[in-house]
Amino acid sequence: MKLKFTFHISLVLFLLFLSQASAQKKESAQISSLIQNFKKDIRGPYKDIRWFCTDGSIRAPKDPCPDEIGPGVQHARYKDEVVALGKSNHVYLGQILAYTDQEPFWDVTNDHSRLKQYQLDKYLRSVDNGWINQRGQFYRGAIQSEDEEAWGIEFYKWLLSDDEVLKNEFFLVRQSLKDIPHNGDDNVAQKMRSESKVISDLYEPFMDLRTKIHSQPEDDDIQKVLQFKQKHSAKLTTDLSNKLNELVVTMREFHKPVDISALPKRASLTKGTPLGKAIESFASDKELEGNPKQLMEQASQLLFDIRNGLLEEKRPMARLQLLDVSLKLEEIVFKSSPDYQPENLKELLHKICYLGMAVTGSGYLEQWEWGQLASNLTNYEADERTLGELTEVLNRARSAVEWSAAMVKANYDAIVKEYVAFEPLTAGFVDDKIRGSVALHLGQSVGELGNLISAESQLANKVMDIQNQSTIRGLNPGYAFGELVVVGGSSDDIEVSSDKIYVFQRPPSDLKPVAGIATVAEGNMVSHVQLLARNLGIPNAALSDQNLQDLKKYDGSKVFYAVSNKGNVILKPENQMSKEELALFEKKERKEERIEVPIAQIRLDENKVLNMQDVDADDSGKLCGPKAANLGQLKKMFPEKVVEGLVIPFGIFRTHMDQKMPDQEGSYWNFLTKMFEEANRMLASGISEKEVENYQLRQLEILRDAIKKMPLRDDFIDQLETGFKNVLGSELGSVPVFLRSDTNMEDLKDFTGAGLNLTIFNSVEREKILEGIKDVWASPYTERSFKWRQKYLLNPENVFPSILVIPSVDVDYSGVLITKGISMGTDKDLTVAFSRGAGGAVDGQAAEQYLIKDEGGYVLLAPARERFYNGLPKTGGTEKKKATFQDRVLNERNIDEIRELAHQIRERVPKETHSDYQGAYDVELGFKDNKLWLFQIRPFVENKKALGSTYLESITPKIDLTKQISLSKKI
Questions:
Q1: Which region is the signal sequence (predicted)?
Q2: What is the full DSSP assignment across 202-262?
């Protein structure tokens, strides 16, 4: 009996183990292997075909659902591995819509992951011969198109009944209509791009034609493909020849004019409504035939109007019809735009305006964002404009292009990044989405305007031999020489080098020293990465996706890179460098370029936890770092805008470092100083700097691990508990706090050190706070922090961390204020960047950015494009919350309050700190229920050497912004 009982227990445990094993998350290599297996399988990801009856029963293929039950649907079932992958990784392969419930497919909890995966699957099938269904696409009966279409209609009837969905997710809903069957249409444009990509992948000489079809599709491309086929007929395989024939058929279908007269039938339910009448009027306008200019303009206007009026229509099926018309209108604009060739500058501005309306109507811009651009882009009726005014129009038009591309990335980047790990072909999805949109033609028109203005201002970029260089703009002045590294995908796993120049899709937030950077997604101008680049004179520029793709052929080559003070960019091969440019990189004594951390006044005798109110700016670099000292100063100046806080001074850190270090002869401090002594000895004996650095990094890893395990002194813990109770008003372990590293090597006159050391977010539990203190003490000895210090400081060994302890504020949005107009170089204006939630803008988020003008008014430099943000729960840690973009982050009241705050800071801070500092300030702040909270202030450090460089001045043309330019100027 006992044996039988033991057997049952063992069986239960074994089955539990099997269950857990099947739910264990699979590695990317395992998923990739599964995909390869599915490609070879005649059933692909499917197991078998069954009838699914309305009563829930499942029947064999030859045993259909009885009439009394109902017709049911027939389709495949997924293989067990496919089902398991969905459970373990939330990866859904080969989704059959008729097999899927609506709410799980919309997948709100996972940022609509399942819907987006369905779109990815469609894309991958088009570029990879069926992808996981390479053989399974011929598995008859696996998917029934009429059932998929019926499901699609029911799905949209359910989805579009919700006003909030259309408000918050307009772009995604509209994009999904291109992929989810619901009315018999196919996405012909994507099919054309996919077929041309497949051909160029198989036959490299087709690449130029593929590029043309992808970037500027025109009707005469059909003839070019036919001529290509004839010219290369001797070298083409039968398969390639057939593929070219299929492409020609698709291109003819794509370039076939849209039947405008049929549009009212598509929106039959809206007959008699304002939008229904507008559609009928457009469809019956005979003047549009053969007039691409009017056709593009009228279609763009109607596209814009449909979006604006969509929520007034409450019937889900009528909404679906309007969205389908919207897609057809985008197709009309896409096809007619290349046929409309402006003859003069006024017509070009006119075209850019309407294409801007089209991208807004298509969801690539939010309506409020277009409102911020419209005053510049709709003003084209004058006979002439100044060069300065036209430059501002170019900047706003360029913004529309960048924000449109960023909308696609914001919605799809996360799922693409996940899929790329096991299916590299996914990397082309975002680019395909952008190229298939009206944003493509907007970008080309803006490029034409940029070329014209560059010629007038002589502010032209010289970036290798790539096309459309007017989309490149400098962010930080400086110059560099080194190997060019072009990173097309994720930068997370890239090991950067300080002597190389990097082109990123998006820079890593923990970027180590580099020689120069250029980015597609610049993040924001006041992130820690951007501030470090600006501080250290690292040249930095923004460029387009296409610019990055064009630069890939130069990956690995040695180049010279410079960004001028006005933002024009030079990138040239080493063999084209002038004598003056070569002289910039002659070997210099490193000490001339490095600064020394002042330690003469540091006080290591202060061993008590301090009330933040008892420190001020005079204590910076003496008792504590500048974060605590300056926040203490702000508490005195703006008591209602600053939280209470505690300061753990340098002395407490040093006292702990004087304890005996385990497994070593002396103290932690002895270990550190001996490491630097040995490094100096090694350098003096001729050992290479790289080898010495590797030795130091190994030693610092030992020290860092030891500090994290270091025992905290009892008297220090007692003081901390007392401070929590008396100053923060709660017991240690009951109030969430931030632990902010605050070293003596931050905010120096010539070195910012922004973001190099650790901040612990929203920690509550007593043990986590105590462990966190040691983690913060250890953070200056990380590789990244050490490398920045080594590169720019003469005495990097003399770093002392203090810690600022402040209670968490679960702000609605937060960010950075710079009391200077960075983008314009204006000292009286302000630059702000804000993101939703806590920790906004400092880590390179795609933040909402403004230039706030001193005399009143402001300019939106960029809208927020982050799908997730940090919330700070009272239980500690962070929680990811989802953001949408239909509303702005900062409101008018916030902007007015920031302007007033900046005025007070400029006036009062130098006076009350008895400082002769005349420069700008870098302020971290946030809003909770529209109340402003201040978290940090420090000098905004710029690299005067880069700003004042004779060479950079020489490549910066003098521009007469008052020069008048006739809008009738031919182009």
A1: 1-23
A2: H-GGGHHHHHHHHHS--TTHHHHHHHHHHHTGGG--HHHHHHHHHHHHHHHHHHSPP-GGG
